[in-house]
Design goal:
Two copies of one chain form a homodimer. Chain A is built from twelve helices and 18 strands. Chain A has about 425 residues and is α/β, with parallel strands linked by helices. Chain A has two domains: about 15-220 and about 335-415, Zn peptidases (Aminopeptidase), CATH 3.40.630; about 220-330, Alpha-Beta Plaits (2-Layer Sandwich), CATH 3.30.70.360.
């Protein structure tokens, strides 16, 4: 904790807003959102823009073997573990202008406002851009932080392919070729702490009229893939009872699961987001359906029971089709360190900003960061809770308030002489 | 009808089988089937192979403005309307080696066996290759015969685009550039009769142990497209009751339709073959779903009532999503001309081949041909009724029997002196 008399730097709100505007041009879809999927040309452009701002300040950028980017502002004690902050620049295919980007630009603002105030921190401060948080091009999500934390092997990550067959390894090689000047560092970077600012992506802060959410925990998440094999047949000639219609089998299975897993409290999140039908011809009975189930709950036991139910239902024979499932990702709930949540709370109190403790419905890179170091997250409201959508929107005043609380927290953790 | 003493030419069964083998290489998927979608490079290759066989015989090939190909063997009375036969060379994306191909190769066999026997027919005989029967790349199915019969305008057909945005017009221009030597003819070709040989694509002939199906009628078919617009949202943070999940709305709608349209007699064919979910990311609540319903029934009133039910159910709001539908294709049942079915029956009787009258579950180009001239179809069995599948298979003896009945029917209609 800071001594009462310490003067913390003020962030530059105008610059923060301006940088969000600049970043919104990179991969712009023309409908108000962006498409900057991990390791795409647009993702590289976003990193280039960020690095152009950093190089003007003389910060030292480095990249690790899975493509996480680290931008260091050295402190008085460069050998001490740094305080880290950041988020991600990659987006959903139809993503908005704040998810991830805000945490990166707010982190940059922490470094720059220290420069502007002529302050040298005790510990170094590092801005992190995690590779592939969204997982929409290469599954799973939060890949870069998972590999950094040792929760996924580098080899497994490099072998993942997108729908066109391009591997992470290939995409990463192409990506690195764009940045020949970047320093390299090994996997497993850690520090004194990691603090991530992020939009809430839900409706709670807006409904509660609070500007800062102090995230105590991230709910658990499982991603499953269900694979149904039937038999292609002519849509005009094949009677229902002779069909092995993989689409009908998927419907029957999902009806059963919806009924079995129904949660009257509406805490369980159950989403079918990817659903692929082969051969996809209007007059052919589908021979194969592959779909994902994204399942989330704050209670690990409840989550695992739901997972087991899905595994049990999605097996054997349904409507004469062969049904299998596999777990793509299991991410148990995590609790954040009280030492960090208390720093964030103190920062909000000092600035007199309305705040509340809360749960994160989405997973974040902070989850894996918390495996390596004390970690916390700062949420700000987003309009109507809309996210993973081009219509995602945030009040500029909330961007500024969130970045200020982040700055105060990081600077306090890094230490300055009063 | 023929006089009893007329000697009809025998087809060359070995050549027919060999040509099926050659055609199976064109667009081969490597899994036993073919992918020769309409106006693709593979479709053009199949036509090139066919034309190479025809040019060796000196037949005159011509193409019409929608890409239907006509190959003429001139008769004694070249000004009289010809007798036409044929089918299609395009296939499903994972199609088999007999659907369509058989009718074309059997038709070629009719022409060649007349040559081999040194017979000159009274009327000319024309082999037709209809463009885009399958409709899997460019919807709707039976496009070439529909335009030829005036049931679809040329302009409407040329403006149809595939999923990559290529129009029929563009694909047709590219296709025609491959065949600069082809003669041109206007739309609307007609003749004395059209007879199409085809595999049954259903299980009836096999179950009844008959080798020839004399098709009396084609059941009716409607293709509808349902378009559901919800709102993309984050899968981890958005409670069920706040979601506008287009996938859930599609499931609810399809449950209602399955229940409402359930046909205990299993005569109604109801197929969802194409089902596209956007943005298709595992951790984003789908904002849009577009799917097709392929609906078939022999009774036009029943079919139209089902169509109206779908239109009524697929409208307004379901699960907070906006639901719309449109009719892509309406194809009423047709009855074939008794004059043609009786010719086919007489041919089967003369050759002592077990036969039966039957309904066609699938639609065919013969449907539109029947708008312009007396038309009939000859079915042969296919293994287990499997079609629109790479595993499609036919007993070679049945190919030969079907081609012989086709030849006898066509030659009888074209007329020869005994």
């Amino acid at each position: 904790m800071l001594k009462a008399q310490t003067v913390l730097p003020l962030i530059n709100g105008g610059r923060l807003i301006e940088r969000h505007r600049s970043m919104a041009f990179v991969g712009a879809t023309g409908r108000g959102g962006v498409n900057r999927q991990a390791l795409s040309v647009e993702d590289a452009e976003a990193r280039q823009l960020l690095l152009s701002w950093c190089s003007a300040r003389g910060y030292a950028p480095e990249i690790d073997p899975i493509g996480n980017l680290f931008i260091r502002r050295a402190g008085k004690q460069p050998d001490q573990p740094p305080v880290m902050t950041g988020s991600h620049l990659d987006t959903q295919p139809t993503g908005g202008n704040y998810d991830g980007i805000f945490g990166v630009l707010a982190g940059l603002e922490v470094l720059e406002s220290l420069d502007d105030a002529g302050i040298e921190t005790e510990r170094s401060v590092e801005l992190v851009v995690w590779m592939n948080e969204e997982g929409s091009r290469f599954a799973p999500a939060t890949m870069g932080s998972a590999v950094s934390a040792g929760a996924m092997t580098l080899e497994a990550a490099l072998n993942v392919r997108d729908v066109t067959g391009v591997s992470v390894q290939q995409a990463l090689e192409d990506h690195l070729a764009i940045f020949p000047e970047l320093g390299r560092r090994p996997l497993g970077s850690s520090g004194r702490a990691f603090v991530e600012a992020h939009i809430e992506q839900g409706p709670i802060l807006e409904a509660e009229r609070r500007k800062i959410g102090i995230v105590n925990a991230i709910q658990g998440m499982c991603t499953l893939e269900v694979d149904i094999t039937g038999f292609e047949a002519h849509a005009g000639t094949t009677p229902s009872l002779n069909r092995q219609d993989a689409f009908v089998a998927a419907m029957v299975l999902l009806e059963r699961l919806r009924s079995k897993l129904h949660d009257p409290a509406d805490v369980l999140r159950f989403t079918v987001g990817r659903f692929e039908v082969s051969p996809g011809s209007s007059n052919t009975v589908p021979g194969r359906v592959v779909f994902t189930i994204d399942l989330r709950h704050p209670d690990v036991e409840y989550m695992l029971r739901c997972c087991e139910t899905i595994r049990a239902f999605a097996s054997g024979t349904i409507e004469r089709c062969n049904v299998n499932s596999r777990l793509l990702l299991r991410s148990d709930p995590v609790q954040f360190a009280t030492s960090i949540t208390e720093e964030i709370r103190a920062a909000a109190v000092r600035r007199n900003i309305p705040h509340m403790g809360m749960l994160s419905g989405a997973t974040h890179d902070s989850r894996y960061a918390s495996f390596k170091m004390p970690t916390g997250m700062i949420f700000i409201p987003c309009e109507k809770g809309i996210s993973h959508n081009e219509a995602e929107n945030v009040d500029p005043q909330d961007l500024i308030a969130g970045a200020q609380v982040l700055s105060d927290t990081v600077v306090s953790l890094a230490g300055i002489s009063s």
